[in-house]
Amino acid sequence: MRLKRLLSFGRRRSSEAEVVSPKNTTLEEDFVNTVTPNRPTWKCFSYEEVFQATNGFHKDNLAGKGGYAEVYRGTLDDGRVIAVKRLMRASTDEQKEKEFLQELGTVGHVRHPNVSAFLGFCIEKELHLVFQFSSLGSVASLLHDESLPPMGWKLRYKISVGTAKGLNYLHSGCQRRIIHRDIKTSNVLLTADFEPQISDFGLAKWLPSEWTHRAVAPIEGTFGYLAPEYFMHGIVDEKTDVFAFGVFLLETVSGRRPVDGNHQSLLSWAKPHLRDGTIHMLIDPRLRGDYDIEELKRVAFAASLCIRSNASRRPSMSEVLELMLNGEVFKDSWDMSEEEEEEELWGFDDLECDSPFLTSTINSLSMSSSQCS
């Protein structure tokens, strides 16, 4: 019934549909026809349009495949290159519809240079979301492909700042607070001019303004990027994304994956260097020393705050941006007590992985060392 209402609404506008907003606290349950202040627009694509654009969802146009969706490259009749996301994962039609509406209700409200541009949807025959295609692929694909030349420092810094801007927008610039829940290098795409854009809102959650956090189950995401409070207790708020962004920064600077082939976490490797001030050891050796030391200092300090175990001691994304862009970093204001410092010795390497809860949780997560790019 919900999809029929949505399709009817799209047909009334024939070419483009105004954004449909969710109720304040029941995004997953239903939609109501309210328009956002910025009046962004969707197009309600026909199945024929997306089918022809992707050449019948031909395997040669398969751009990526995740746990619950396939993404195909396509070209519209007007020449625009698009990415068509086809949902697959849910065990029942009702669950698939719920997940589709949840993601649609999120991406339909965002408009920012550092967030993937949403163009529309198609609900004929199957469920599809249509985005502007990012021609250069993901940050992960450029960062970790050994057949490519190493990404230069200026580009790494640009990507880091741009991603921070996009995430700050999701947390505080949207009509409602959006928690992405899966910030990682393979979910940040690059435009033709190397502008980073946050993508894949399949796990994203609304957080009503009166809520401090929400508890979710099951735990989903990518091992290596998960904040302790989320991994252990399912607690989600903006600081969940902040932690993942700290890992993102360390990965971008070092060129190392969040979990390597020996299952060593990037955090366990990086924390001693952050703590001892030997931040030059964090730099990707392929850069051969070609980097801006002042920018590195700011990025490393921001990362060290983002990955704090205590969520209340992490900065907001607006503060992260200020730390990364401001030439003067006031470290004293972020000092911790000795007791808090001891708590920061916590790490994923300390987890008892033979615990039934942790074992089942880890098994349900995608491993960053084999992430799809």
From TrEMBL:
CDD domains: STKc_IRAK
GO terms of molecular function: ATP binding; protein kinase activity
InterPro entries: Kinase-like_dom_sf (IPR011009), Prot_kinase_dom (IPR000719), RBK1/2/STUNTED (IPR046958), Ser-Thr/Tyr_kinase_cat_dom (IPR001245), Ser/Thr_kinase_AS (IPR008271)
Residues annotated as domain Protein kinase: 57-330
PROSITE patterns: PROTEIN_KINASE_DOM (PS50011), PROTEIN_KINASE_ST (PS00108)
SUPFAM superfamilies: Protein kinase-like (PK-like) (SSF56112)
Keyword entries, A-Z: Kinase, Receptor, Transferase
Stored Pfam families: PK_Tyr_Ser-Thr (PF07714)
The protein's name: Receptor-like serine/threonine-protein kinase
Record organism: Acorus gramineus (Dwarf sweet flag)
